[in-house]
Design brief:
- This protein has a domain at about 20-250.
- About 80% of the residues lie in helices and about 0% in strands.
- It has helices spanning about 5-35, 40-65, 70-75, 85-110, 110-115, 125-135, 140-155, 160-185, 200-220, 220-225, 240-250, 250-270, 285-320, 325-350, 355-360, 365-380, 380-395, 400-425, 430-455, 465-490, 500, 505-525, 530-545, 545-550.
- Helix 2 crosses helix 6, helix 5 (about 110-115) crosses helix 6 and helix 14 (about 325-350) packs antiparallel against helix 16 (about 365-380).
- The longest helix has about 35 residues, at about 285-320.
- It starts with 5 loop residues before the first helix and ends with a helix.
């Protein structure tokens, strides 16, 4: 079994540490937002839709044009006499121009976008969401800058700033939310009527969110200077090799467009659940789905994104040099480490779904509603993380067509399932059923993508992804059993039980259960001789022990 590359391990740890801090602050930000405007409330759904709009448009532009092709193209450009400086200047200038134009158009179209992503809302709620959207959509421009500036840094193996910049975003947002609660008071149960939302409340809540994204992007220019780069606008785009990069992005653009259609359908269907709040206030809708997805993305962001980002540049270099065996070793090593964490995270977050939900909401019915959605989403974590790594492998091979194919399969299943759930499921369970459909469709996507990648690179041989996952699944069974046992020893997850009684008891229970499950999981992995566990510990020793002196 190949060992983790020390440089990749160090890069991944730097990125993971930044992501951990960012996610902790992001978690605190979500808790504070829930205290300010609730989770199962009309105001929370209105802000949730508006704040998600720039992310959706950003995903189309960035996911389709930048992430798939920029790093491989920058790796190529560095071979030039100027070290790629001319290519960077022209590409960044083009990106800034595109993002500014797109942001302007979509901000003007805010009312249309809000109506497109919702269904069955009152005019007052639509008006509030639209007002939020006018403040939130400019985030699109700064998300674009963040991605471009960060990918340039990644291509030069300066991985840390890209992962640490969101920390500043969360700090600014936390300050804004703190000021909002201090000035206007908390409203976790939605007692504040839609009509009470004036320009002052809207500006502070949504404006501080946008200010955080702007800070996240602009701070990366400091890191540019540290590696000897300077932002120099250059509008001479012809004849400098940008055409092949944009043509290569066409399939990836199609992939993300298809994905966003799926997201649009999901949001529109989920938004219909809000209409049932008149009879049952604790009905999960758009905001609850967003909180659950935040929890889902925590282990993915900390581990998968860090591993995949570090290996992406290496795989692109291997592909350029024709070293396919090195490419496959990096790919399978990344997949095994991702699986090590994803399997454990899935089991842990399912067991702790109700205590975690209690941190965000106060009443037990809302805790149960959110907790069910969290547990349902978590079933798709391992395949979702595998898909992310597989997509990066195809992008490193400069193949954007194949990811479009297996993503289209997933979205077709997802759309069909979401629409069906919209017709047949009671609104109380609608978002849970959509989460289960999401997990199922991602699993199919992962299986299809993995099969296509094996055919593309001639098979993965005896590099051991399947056996490794099998060991992880065996080890997580006793870990999950221990977690469930402790949870019920503390009183279970029923109304009034210790793990869901108060925020403090929920946090304490989560810490006790998580620690016990982690120890049991590690012990059984050791008994099963899972080499990935030793490799990760070796990487940690290399980073914080003797290897740190050699940096």
């Amino acid at each position: 079994m190949s060992e983790l590359n020390p440089s990749v391990t160090r890069s991944s740890l730097v990125m993971a540490s930044g992501t951990i801090v960012s996610r902790i602050l992001g978690f605190a930000r979500a808790v504070l937002l829930a205290a300010a405007i609730g989770v199962t409330t009309d105001a929370a759904d209105a802000f949730g839709v508006a704040n998600q709009l720039p992310n959706n448009v950003y995903a189309i532009i960035v996911g389709g044009v930048l992430n798939a092709v920029l790093v491989p193209q920058l790796v190529k450009a560095r071979k030039g006499a100027d070290g790629g400086k001319g290519y960077i200047d022209r590409f960044v200038t083009l990106a800034i121009t595109v993002f500014f134009s797109v942001t302007l158009v979509f901000t003007i179209a805010a009312p249309l976008l809000v109506r497109l992503y919702t269904s069955g809302w009152s005019e007052d709620q639509l008006a509030l969401a639209t007002a939020f959207a006018y403040w939130c959509l400019p985030q699109l421009f700064f998300y674009g800058l963040y991605s471009v500036f960060g990918e340039v840094l990644n291509s030069r193996k300066a991985f840390g700033p890209f992962m640490w910049a969101p920390v500043l975003n969360n700090v600014v947002s936390l300050a804004g939310l703190g000021a909002f609660i201090l000035i206007f008071a908390a409203d976790p149960t939605g007692e504040r009527a839609i009509s009470e939302w004036g320009a002052d409340r809207i500006t502070l809540l949504a404006g501080s969110a946008t200010l955080g994204v702007a800070a996240q992007a602009l701070i990366l220019l400091v890191s540019w200077r540290r590696i000897g780069l300077k932002l120099s606008l250059n509008f001479q785009w012809r004849g400098f090799g940008l055409g092949p990069a944009l043509r290569a992005a066409s399939w990836s653009l199609g992939m993300v467009l298809v994905t966003q259609i799926g997201g649009l359908v999901q949001t529109a269907v989920a938004s219909t659940a809000a209409a049932e709040r008149a009879s049952s206030p604790a009905v999960a809708s758009v905001a609850a789905a967003a909180i659950a997805w935040l929890i889902f993305m925590l282990p993915h962001s900390v581990v998968t994104v860090s591993i995949a980002t570090a290996y992406f540049t290496r795989m692109a270099e291997h592909n350029q040099a024709g070293r396919i065996e090195d490419f496959k070793r990096d790919l399978t090593t990344g997949l095994r480490v991702i699986a090590l964490v994803s399997v454990f995270s899935t089991a842990t977050l399912i067991v702790l779904s109700y205590p975690i939900a209690r941190v965000f909401v106060g009443e037990y019915p809302a805790t149960a509603a959110l907790g069910n959605v969290i547990a349902a989403f978590m079933l798709g974590l391992l395949p979702f993380s595998f898909v992310y790594m597989i997509q990066r492998a195809f992008f490193a091979l400069e193949d954007t067509k194949t990811p479009f194919i297996f993503t289209s399969v997933q979205i077709a299943i997802h759309i069909a399932g979401s629409v069906t759930m919209g017709f047949v499921m009671p609104k109380q369970y609608l978002v849970v059923s959509i989460a289960l459909v999401t997990a199922f469709s991602i699993t199919i996507q992962g299986l299809v993508g993995y099969s296509m990648l094996k055919r593309r690179i001639g098979g993965l041989g005896g590099l051991g992804v399947g056996p490794a996952v099998g060991k992880f699944l065996l080890a997580v069974i006793p870990a999950a059993a221990s977690g469930v046992g402790i949870m019920f020893a503390l009183g279970g997850i029923g109304a009034g039980a210790f793990p869901v009684d108060k925020v403090l008891t929920a946090v304490a229970s989560s810490a006790a259960v998580g620690l016990a499950m982690g120890l049991v999981y590690a012990a059984f992995l050791w008994l099963l001789k899972a080499g990935e566990l030793r490799e990760v510990f070796a990487g940690l020793r290399g980073r914080f022990g003797a290897g740190n002196k050699a940096d």
